[in-house]
Amino acid sequence: MGEGDVTGQLPLDVETILEALQSLSTDRILAIAKEAHPGDVAAAFERLEDLERREILDLLPAEALSAWVDYLPSIDIEKGLATLTRTEQREVLAALSDDELVDLLQEIEEEDLPQYLELLGDHKREISAHLMRYPEETAGGRMTTAMATVREDRTVREALNELAAIQDQTELLSRIYVVDEDRRILGKVRLRDLAFNSRSTLIRDLMDSDQSSVPAMADQEEAAQMIARYDLVALPVVDEDGRLLGVITHDDALDILEEESTEDMERISGIGGQGGLAYLQTPAVAHFRRRFGWILTLAFLALASGFILHAFEGVLKAYYILALYLPMVVAAGGNTGAQSATMVIRAMSLGELDTREFWRVIWKEGRVGIMLGGLLGLCVALQINFLLPASFDTGTVSVLRIGFVVGLSLMAQVVTSTLIGAGLPLLAKKVNLDPAVVASPAITTLVDMSGSVIYFGLAGWLFT
Questions:
Q1: pTM
Q2: Is domain 14-133 in CATH 3.30.1520.10, yes or no?
Q3: Model confidence at 7, in pLDDT bands (50, 70, 90)?
């Protein structure tokens, strides 16, 4: 998708679109296709139940599917195509932008791929074969070849004539990339530069040679971050020799960043990826499969906390009042550890941190942990000393000592948990593991165990 893809369409309320889709009226659906922006239609599709979506796709006219095809998930496009004639299928596939077409072809079962390729024109088939050489989550896998290029030795007049000939084949005309005879990228010019300069001026005299690019095999997230960092309309993708292969547009960069942030959030929560499907489009069984493994693993890991409590059984029996504050100490550690992990992973995903900053991160989070833990521990110690009911039997230990132990344990637990939450993602990255997976609820389980050891260890040491 690129600039100027949709014209003459106004935003419609998603509820209105949803009502038209659920009516299963071909006339109303066609009216929506003409009036609504495809992005709003895609938002409405995400709110449909699986059965409703299948019913709509079964009767969806080719005209409507063609209008929305660049915005719908590949699985919906495939289902919509299945009900059309081959002529209609050919029309819909022709409406797909190059990068979205490749996304669709990569999702299709291998045995069904030949019949889809047969529906493509020679030009589309050639482009698709070229783009499918690159893995799906690389810059090459997300680029489009529908960009405008011009040779450096052309005049403005020649460049405008060439652009006029390809205007219907490009997604992006506001940025024109300047290449040499071997298609090595040299810079870029804007359309306005061509419009407001002498027709005899050479392109090399107008071009801006300060042009960022990304290798075709670079990770898609790296490319999207570059577009966001440098506020680019599009980012050229080049081969190992610097030859221009295609571009990643800003709207595709937004999609990539959304996908990556969603994926990181799911991994931090211990949930597998949803494969690009909206929440309501994902079957309940699929949710169960993604979540059960982690829940079962964490349940077994949590047994370790029980063994720790058993090891300190003597302390717990002698000073049973300590059990009142154990959940608070443990929960505080889990919360602060999760906060630190989330902040560090976010900074890493945005390119703000890498493993070289490990000790700087530890130093920073250590200070934050001391401030958080110190203030929290002080507040809780004061609460125990002044608000603990006099009717509570504290045995041979004074309320003052109990408040001191709980407050000190809380501070130590918060500091420890903050360091664990901040350090584990960076260590995982250093050994080529996914930081988001390491920072899953396993961190919470780990700090649960550390909290029990710290709490009862300090109590046993100070009370005996």
A1: 0.66
A2: no
A3: very low
